[in-house]
Every structure is written in structure tokens, then in C-alpha cells.
Design a protein that fits this description.
11 strands, 7-stranded mixed sheet, 120 residues, mainly beta, 4-stranded antiparallel sheet
Amino acid sequence: VQLQASGGGLVQPGGSLVLSCAASGFTFRSTWMYWVRQAPGKDIEWVAIIDPTGTATNYPDSVKGRFTISRDNAKSTLDLRMYSLKPEDTAQYYCARSPPRVVLGSYDYRGQGTQVTVSS
């Protein structure tokens, strides 16, 4: 299993950023997927989940209305569009795979992350 996130960087408060994840080594089109993040000194937090077809998504209140998850099953890629970014969104962001039995917030594999820093 390989999950490689990219697209992070430094952005000003109120700005936008798009993260991408390239997946391989498993049947991506059949798998629920997450974006999760970890800020320094804090626990890992899930920020978005998407079903295998890309038609069902869910977000915690902390990012709802600002983040959008999407997927391209033909390319085995997962995206996270982030808008109206806040300093508290600063974290290492990872894409993660759900186990076959979906339990919100629970993943069985997390790839390499990409750093997002929101600062003026």
C-alpha cells in the first residue's frame, strides 16, 4: 500500500490550498478514504471522509463548509480543497485508508503527509 500526499505549503489566513494523494497497492475504487491531520502536540484528527463512489462525504464541524474532499477512481487519486484557511488548520496532512468495516475516524493505513502552514 502506498499513499503519497502532496500540495502542502505556506498560505496566509483566508487563503486556499489543494492537496492531492496518489494511491496504489490496493483496490482504491472500492475503498472509503480519509484525509486526516496532526498539529504539533495534538492527536490525529480526521477532517474528511469519502465513500468509494465519491457521492457521500462527511466532515467534522471544525472544517465543514471550508474543506471539500473528492476522488478520481480512474486515476486512483484523492483531493482535499481547503478554503478560508485559519492558523489552527496548520498541521501535517495525510490521506488514509478505511478498513472494510467503516468506523468514522478509524483508518488502517496512513501514508506520508504534506505540511500545511497557515500564517501571515
